[in-house]
Amino acid sequence: MKRILGIGNALVDVMTLVDNDTILEKFSLPKGSMQLVDKTKSDDIIKDTSKFKISLTSGGSSANTIYGLAMLGADTGFIGTIGRDETGDLFNNDMKHAGVKTFLLRRESVTGTAVAIITPDSERTFATHLGAAVELNAEDLTSVMFDDYDILYLEGYLIYNLPLVEKACRIAREKEMKVALDLASYNIVEANLDAFRVIIEKYVDIIFANEQEAEAFTGLKAEESLKIISEYCEIVIIKIGSGGSWIKRGEEIIKIGSFPVNCIDTTGAGDLYASGFLYSYAQDSSLDKCGLLGAFLAGKVIEIPGARLNDEKWAEIKADLSVYTNPE
Questions:
Q1: How many CB atoms lie within 10 A of CB 312?
Q2: Average pLDDT over the chain, rounded to whole?
Q3: Which end of the chain has a smaller Cβ tally under 10 Å, C or N?
Q4: 55-90 in b/e burial notation, b at 16+ Cβ within 10 A?
């Protein structure tokens, strides 16, 4: 089975269930987006939402995907930066609990946090203070970190540090690894379109995007985006929420439906879809099985608040894995 190495912003998610959109309006947070905020604004948001139900878990897009892969039984690693604080310890311990080999560099800054505001319509909006997470630099990456891994998984949020992304991709190419990229958020794509195009055209083999991200990248709707994005890379996955997902490799196009679920919170749906897809892909499974396991995991995680399924739920999922991973 292929081994997967992730690089991303090491964050602790502050999952917050609110009862209306007032907080979003007060802090000018567009619903469904990821907004970068400074520590003062992050602290103010946390203070104003303290009356609501809150939970803390390790997070960040790439970390969520790598965590999910590890819980499925894949050999995984994760590179990131955290603070010398209890929040950083929480992140490290949570990832290790799943079986992830961590390459975490400690900084003097506080560990980054992502306040995930979950509104009654199950949509999630992130106010992210990157803190130490943004201090991962190209110089921190060494070739040894990539040894024995077969797939590099990157989150689109890293595009703000283009030298870091370029070095990671160059090392991956030197080691003949596949490179997978999630486009992260439509507003990130809009703000960094040229940089994304350069990285994707030069290095990326697998792209994960949702409808909004695909449209931001191409200017076209989901199905039309498949053709355009596939000109850059080997495999394109476009997720369309309850409508399922489209997958394209060469001339092969597959439509994957969604599983019937009781949606509570969409946090982590895209990240866990990538976990499922890559787990099957790492075992050379067919594209339809890759997509089905992705959809299955996405369906499981949206039935709970946050992006972390408990150990009991993972045990149930692993009991069904043979349906999604046998190569054809």
A1: 8
A2: 92
A3: C
A4: ebbbbbbbbbbbbbbbbbebbbbbbbbbbebebbeb
- Residue 184, token pair as written in the block: 């992260």
324 close to 280: Cβ distance less than 8 angstroms: yes
Summarize pLDDT for 244-271 with one digit per residue, the tens: 999 999 999 999 988 877 777 677 789 9
What is the Cβ-side half-sphere exposure of residue 183, based on CA atoms within 13 angstroms? Answer: 30
47 burial class (0-12, 13-18, 19+ CB within 10 angstroms)?
exposed
Determine the Cα–Cα distance for residues 208 and 89; give it in Å rounded to an integer: 30
Q: What is the pTM of this model?
A: 0.89
> Residue 252 corresponds to which tokens in the numbers above?
């092969």
Closest CA to 68 of 297, 233, 305, 229: 297
For the chain, the structural domain boundaries read 4-8+60-110+135-325
3-state secondary structure (DSSP) of residue 47: helix
Query: What's the fold here for domain 4-8+60-110+135-325?
Result: UDP-N-acetylmuramoyl-L-alanine:D-glutamate ligase (3.40.1190)
- Which pair of tokens denotes residue 82? 């955290």
Q: According to the model, what pLDDT value does residue 169 have?
A: 98
| pLDDT tens digit sequence for 66-90 | 999 999 999 999 999 999 999 999 9
